[in-house]
Amino acid sequence: xxxxxxxxxxxxxxxxxxxxxxxxxxxxxxxxxxxxxxxxxxxxxxxxxxxxxxxxxxxxxxxxxxxxxxxxxxxxxxxxxxxxxxxxxxxxxxxxxxxxxxxxxxxxxxxxxxxxxxxxxxxxxxxxxxxxxxxxxxxxxxxxxxxxxxxxxxxxxxxxxxxxxxxxxxxxxxxxxxxxxxxxxxxxxxxxxxxxxxxxxxxxxxxx
Length: 208
Fold this sequence. Notes:
Oligomer: single chain
Number of domains: 2
CATH superfamily of the largest domain: Phosphorylase Kinase, domain 1
Strand content: 15-25%
């Protein structure tokens, strides 16, 4: 089964639609778009998912305008091209250009005639099913310190993440770094609320 077929099966499991059924999320509605998707997915599978031949599970998450597919070794985000150009292009250009070690690493961004496909590095999420992930015991002191430096860097560059919580932080065992992801509320502003939100979420999971 190709990666595109596996993405479609995962999409159907979570939404009751395949990628080839008419829906308001992701609809591959032409042969040209199918060929674009299939070619990109094959490249992604080889380059970023290590050609994983196991029966790996694909997890589907939903941001406001983006569908997120979590694979074994990479994460795929799919967004309609108009929404991407209107809301996200400057964010992902910033993330790619700065390449900050505590921000999710973007491998590549692919364009089709209808959707944008964003591929990033897969890390260990700190929270799964509203519980601390048993795969990694968080060091809250280091998390706070690394996120404090990151938040200040973002502010200096004129940005705010606007949702810095333990739920949106993962651990990269290769870099030994805590990594912030989920950019749906990321925008051009100098909000000082990120540190407060982070501290509040840390206290919640410490006391939980």
